[in-house]
Write a sequence for this structure.
């Protein structure tokens, strides 16, 4: 038995399996040629971040379009940052948007798929088996340096003017300890970590083809990276390499902030003897800072929209958020949507290579516009169902009023909805209450503010005259014809163009007349089809509101 083999047995006396055992447990996936296997691997340290959701969507789309597999892996090796049941917070965000992975973690303590466990803390034996194998081959070693010694090392590098900082070369004081010294310190109970014995050369560079950003060149890794911490838990870098190999990941898709780590990951894949996956680094999700006007990364601390939960609470339809994110993810999505206005987004031919190389600008105003378009083509029944579900959780008072008569509320939402040019008033479910409040006496308070260019006498004459011709059975054309007939006797013109040509000749036009009635009935200057509104409100309510308006003059 070699000294390296003796050392490996001393460090890992309880590890009896070999890397080959795990190769058998996790064989190559039986997938079609060209199928991509992707993973989203968050830490359970809080809510699902919009940047994370953006990345997860890219993972899922990449797998879907290739007939592959996407999985959710929880990377919980950093116990200091983990929060209680952080997994459920992540899963809840995905559930709201109907986003589902092929396999992986499905909830707190639950998962699906044959390549698990999909939680890193449950895979400790795998990492230790691979680390033991590396020690046996002389590719890893125990490091006994204390925190004070590592601090002194960094200070020495500063004073030496070292261009590279870290544990490497002549600064790696435990790298060349004799087996006898290692054995003595282990048996003495000294704390240690397991480090990679890097073969990197600071004068050499590595190159890799990033699927999104193209060819990237960087210096080789020379740092003896920590593989296992003193408690036996792996570092992110080592766990990621082991997991992506045994879960048979073909494409590592992650944020561009991880580009600087690629050299150490490439070395780890090579040292372990694993096939290298393809790397694809997505652009950061940015926003315009309101104070400086500069672009910056979405901030958990500053930006409520950084949390996926914000969009749930505000009531943005899942379809709207997904639609908007696709405009950021692929430059050709908007053209595809114009050509396929009613097609499900799952049919969009997503392509990693069409992602932006620079940052993606998250714009709430643009999201609102997208969402208005999405909601405008929903049926009234769909909108009712969504509003009822949202308000049950976030506005119980409105929910009680809104759902008391489902047929009435659905009819309210259907006004001007199913025509060739549907109105685009609503961007999120939280706006519906204010949008429809004048239909419900429990929510409506009259606040009539008539156009100041009209005199009180003219307003009163319009309302009084209208009451004499009002018939709730009138269809839209008959109703409008009556409004036009009222105009000339009252000093208004039924022709808007005529008014614009000669405004001094009239008190106003037909739009002003209908506007007075609209304000009296709804306390709004802008509404959907007024005839339809009054038909739903009913004769008694309309008459009462008009009489009340007259009384205020």
């Amino acid at each position: 038995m070699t000294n390296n083999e003796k050392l490996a047995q001393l460090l890992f006396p309880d590890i009896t399996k070999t890397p080959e055992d795990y190769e058998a447990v996790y064989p190559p996936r039986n997938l079609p040629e060209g199928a991509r296997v992707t993973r989203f691997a968050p830490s359970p340290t809080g809510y699902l971040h919009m940047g994370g959701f953006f990345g997860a969507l890219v993972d899922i789309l990449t797998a879907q379009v290739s007939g592959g597999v996407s999985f959710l892996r929880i990377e919980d090796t950093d116990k200091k940052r983990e929060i209680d049941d952080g997994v459920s917070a992540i899963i809840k965000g995905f559930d709201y948007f109907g986003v589902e992975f092929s396999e992986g973690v499905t909830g707190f303590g639950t998962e699906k798929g044959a390549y698990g466990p999909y939680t890193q803390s449950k895979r400790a034996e795998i990492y230790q088996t691979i680390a033991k194998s590396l020690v046996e081959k002389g590719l890893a070693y125990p490091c006994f340096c204390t925190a004070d010694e590592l601090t002194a090392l960094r200070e020495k590098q500063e004073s030496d003017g070292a261009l590279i900082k870290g544990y490497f070369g002549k600064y790696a004081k435990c790298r060349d300890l004799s087996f006898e010294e290692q054995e003595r310190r282990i048996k003495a109970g000294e704390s240690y970590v397991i480090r990679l014995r890097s073969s990197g050369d600071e004068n050499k560079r590595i190159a890799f083809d990033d699927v999104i950003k193209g060819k990237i060149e960087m210096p080789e890794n020379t740092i003896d990276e920590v593989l296992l911490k003193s408690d036996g838990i792996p570092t992110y870098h080592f766990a990621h390499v082991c997991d992506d190999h045994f879960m048979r990941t073909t494409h590592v898709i992650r944020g561009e902030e991880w580009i600087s780590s690629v050299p150490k990951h490439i070395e780890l894949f090579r040292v372990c003897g694993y096939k290298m996956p393809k790397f694809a680094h997505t652009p950061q999700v940015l926003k315009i800072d309101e104070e400086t006007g500069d672009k910056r990364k979405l901030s958990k601390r500053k930006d409520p929209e950084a949390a996926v939960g914000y969009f749930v609470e505000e009531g943005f339809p899942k379809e709207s958020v997904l639609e908007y994110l696709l405009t950021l993810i692929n430059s050709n999505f908007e053209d595809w949507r114009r050509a396929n206005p009613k097609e499900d987004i799952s049919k969009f031919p997503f392509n990693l290579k069409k992602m932006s190389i620079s940052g993606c600008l998250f714009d709430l105003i643009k999201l609102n516009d997208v969402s208005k378009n999405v909601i405008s083509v929903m049926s009234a029944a769909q909108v009712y169902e969504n509003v009822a579900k949202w308000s049950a959780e976030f506005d119980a008072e409105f929910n009680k009023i809104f759902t008391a008569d489902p047929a009435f509320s659905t009819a309210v939402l259907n006004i001007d909805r199913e025509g060739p040019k549907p109105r685009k008033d609503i961007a999120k479910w939280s706006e519906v209450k204010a949008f429809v409040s004048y239909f419900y006496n429990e929510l409506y308070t009259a606040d009539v503010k008539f156009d100041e260019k009209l005199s009180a006498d003219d307003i009163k004459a319009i309302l009084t005259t209208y009451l004499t011709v009002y018939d709730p059975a009138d269809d839209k054309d008959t109703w409008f014809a009556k409004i036009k007939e009222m105009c000339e006797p009252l000093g208004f013109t039924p022709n808007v163009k005529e008014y614009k040509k000669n405004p001094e000749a009239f008190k106003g036009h037909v739009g002003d007349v209908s506007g007075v009635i609209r304000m009296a009935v709804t306390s709004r200057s802008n509404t959907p089809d007024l005839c339809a509104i009054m038909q739903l409100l009913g004769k008694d309510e309309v008459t009462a509101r008009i009489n009340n308006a007259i009384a205020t003059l």
User: Anything to note?
Assistant: The longest helix spans residues 50-65. The mean pLDDT is 93. The chain is about 45% helix and 10% strand. Residues 3-16+124-281 form a domain with the Rossmann fold fold (CATH 3.40.50.620).
